[in-house]
Amino acid sequence: MFDDEFFRDPYPLYDRLREQCPVQRMDGGRFPFWLITGYAEAREALADPRLSKDTSAFEHVLAPDGRTRDIAPAIARSLLATDPPDHTRLRRPVTRAFTPQLTDRLTPRIEQIAADLVADLADRREADLVADFAVPLPLTVICELLGVPPEDRPALRTWSQDLFLHGDHRHRDAASHHIAAYMTDLVTTRRTTRGDDLLSALLNDQDEAPTMSPEELVSLATLFVVAGHETTANLIANTALMLLTRPALMSDPHTTLEALPQIIEEALRFDAPLGIATIRFTREPVTYADTEIPADQAIMISLAAANRDPRSFTSPHTFTPTPRPQPHLSFGHGPHYCPGARLAKLETHIALTTLLTTFPTLTLTQPPSTLPWRQSRQMRSPQTLPTLLSAAPPPQPL
Hints:
Blueprint: H1 4-8, H2 11-20, E1 23-26, E2 33-36, H3 39-46, E3 51-52, H4 59-62, H5 73-76, H6 86-97, H7 100-104, H8 107-121, E4 126-128, H9 130-134, H10 136-146, H11 153-163, H12 169-192, H13 198-208, H14 214-227, H15 230-244, H16 253-270, E5 280-282, E6 286-288, E7 291-293, E8 298-301, H17 303-306, H18 341-358, E9 361-364, E10 386-390
Parallel strand pairs: 2-8
Antiparallel strand pairs: 1-2, 3-5, 4-10, 5-8, 6-7, 9-10
Helix pairs in contact: 8-10, 8-18, 11-12, 12-14, 15-16, 15-18, 16-18
Keywords: Heme, Iron, Metal-binding, Monooxygenase, Oxidoreductase
Region (Disordered): 366-398
């Protein structure tokens, strides 16, 4: 696992592993882990209270040689690495921040950001739909929500990307400290200078009824900026790639726009923007698919593999933008289900609607098989999407 061929197309390997057994022990990397590739087993594990996400309690599993990582606490002990009751307590303000009503109120601003990005492309013949569109849209949305100045956003993007690079962990560890230090300074600034942003609202809530420590607030802010744009950027890029490589989906712009919600859902299943869920640990022995996993073991759940399990999905390797009986697992399942799922789909829908309305004809400028993919164990998307843009003709006078 985790070589160039895997990053380009992990599904042949996932299929082979699942056919052997949907739960297998893998020995690669710094520590052994159990990989789940089956849909039923993944769904069960995602909601299993016998599994822990508290990485601080299982450092001996992650570092069997005693050499622990130097990850900033704001990253290592985030909401994603906690169990109830701490997880329940820390998740509450996140859930309040992303209610359907509050999310939908962002629609006009997201539409404006998308329109501005498309306007910047209007005079160009070619563009990289990842760097020029898929990334800046959700990054701008979450940075505006948190009150991050425009001049600081490129650095945050670079550090965030570096957090997920496969390879030398020292590079990832350094990025974790950079982004944590920045968010610490931002929280400190907001304590004395409040604004009309999500971070100020969280601080106002903490002033009235404290539920988080200062360190936990920094960690939550850090999670917002990272999780708030990474997977959405991947989703926009992955869905755009589905359209670019399937001319039949683009033959009638009006039909494409009408089908866009289901196209996005199928893109989520077909190429999950988060290929492998955040790590879990066994508190006690557990059994999935007649395979017993002992206590004190690391578990990785492949959402991407589960979404293409032929036991749960008919023709799983065929992109079919029609409703399927089983829901995909790309936003997780159970108590850790992504609270930003609605916002991610809203941003993707607005982004692609705006793009396709302005440029109804989009063409990749290189074969799909030659596209570079993110070198990341978790994040799944092309690194670039070099695209030829063809604007819609101006309306004819009556």
